[in-house]
Design goal:
By secondary structure, the protein is α+β, with helices and mostly antiparallel strands. It has a single domain (3-97), classed as 3-Layer(aba) Sandwich (Aminopeptidase), CATH 3.40.630.30. The chain is built from 2 helices and 5 strands; from the N terminus they run ββββαβα. The chain has a 5-stranded mixed β-sheet.
Length: 105
């Protein structure tokens, strides 16, 4: 994660069902679904003003850390999150082994 995002807090916006970070009034976020044991990440997006800044990668990394600390298992349905984990295989430890594409990570 780029250093300029390290101090930016992650918010779990339960009313919008998304994890988000805010940078200069703009948002990068991941839509999620949740059960008692799992968190499914469905879609990652950043406001156009944040394009190319690394904000999307930062919200992914912060969200993965949140899931790790929660003790829940991850279902990475979002292609961006899936690709992030493929690039950073140390995060595979939080992916639910029952996830259909687990062996492709």
């Amino acid at each position: 994660m780029k250093t300029e995002f390290e101090a930016v807090p992650l918010t779990k916006n339960e009313s919008k069902k998304r994890f988000e970070i805010e940078v200069d009034g703009y948002f990068a976020f991941i839509n999620y679904g949740e059960t008692d044991n799992q968190i499914a990440l469905v879609h990652t997006e950043a406001d156009p003003e944040l394009a190319g800044t690394g904000a999307a990668a930062a919200v992914v990394e912060k969200t993965l850390e949140f899931i790790k600390e929660s003790g829940k298992k991850l279902l990475p349905f979002c292609p961006y999150v899936f690709a992030f984990i493929k690039k950073h295989p140390e995060w595979k430890i939080i992916v639910d082994e029952k996830f259909a594409a687990y062996d492709k990570l």
